[in-house]
Amino acid sequence: MTPADVIALSQNAVKITMLLSGPILMVGMAVGLVIALFQAITQIQEMTLTFVPKIFAVMLTVLFLASWMITMMVEYTHDLITSIPLLIR
Length: 89
Prior knowledge:
Layout: H1 3-42, H2 48-82, H3 84-87
């Protein structure tokens, strides 16, 4: 296994991680921004107001994107396992 192989595996792992976590983080960030604006406008500083909608939005996002996420993970794992003989030279 050459250093180029290690770098390629690391790049693919980081890419798949970013692809899978990006939509969830973006939804959480967008909902947090909307809630922060709502709290700034109304001056309501309730702690549960920040967490409950974010958790709900993230869970809906995970439920909506679960099949795509599982497909991406299975494809990546399949490619990784099938490339083992090529990496052990």
